[in-house]
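Structure ticket #2291
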Amino acid sequence: MQILFNRTCLRLIAVSLGLFLFPLLLTASDFEEGESYTGVKLGVIGSGAVDVAGHDVDHSTSLTAGCFFDFPFGSKFHYGLSADFLRMDWQAADYPIPFEQSEWFLDLGINFKGNFVDENSQLGFRPGLGIGFGFLRKMETAGVSNSSYLTLKAFAEIIYFTPGDLIFLFDCGIWYAPSGGDNLTDVKIGPLVFLRGGVMF
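Resolution: structure written out below.
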């Protein structure tokens, strides 16, 4: 099995780049230059489709949690690392026998974020793009074991600055694994929508 970019993947990247760059063309104040941030997030990842060797499998809404580390790149950008856990909850009525199984998916990613902050309020907006490498230990009933994936995500963080050092955030976006699987089975997951809340400091 090879991890490859397909047309859907390339279109998602192109649209995401447009959504990411547009707010940065607007006038905005800057994050404090040189500041690094650490954060944690908890929320849900929505339902959607999974393609397992050409068979349709359903993914149900489930939990996701993660942490991230952002480092400054000038005053208007951050780059960083993230580790996200996503609960894969798969069901199928006829693949090739009915099954239902859940397992945790680990996604290790590199992210690039823009900083768009209204200097007259305590709110900020950070559009971001991420690419990662994912691991799914076992989905034995689906015939998938120790599989790996290319992952992509496009997201936006709405942040609220408190008088102290704590910053609250709301995170929404799209997560996609366009290519992956194990040595015998090709798997594509999503795209799936996710919603999370968290803090950064």
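Closing remark: Helices lie at 7-21.
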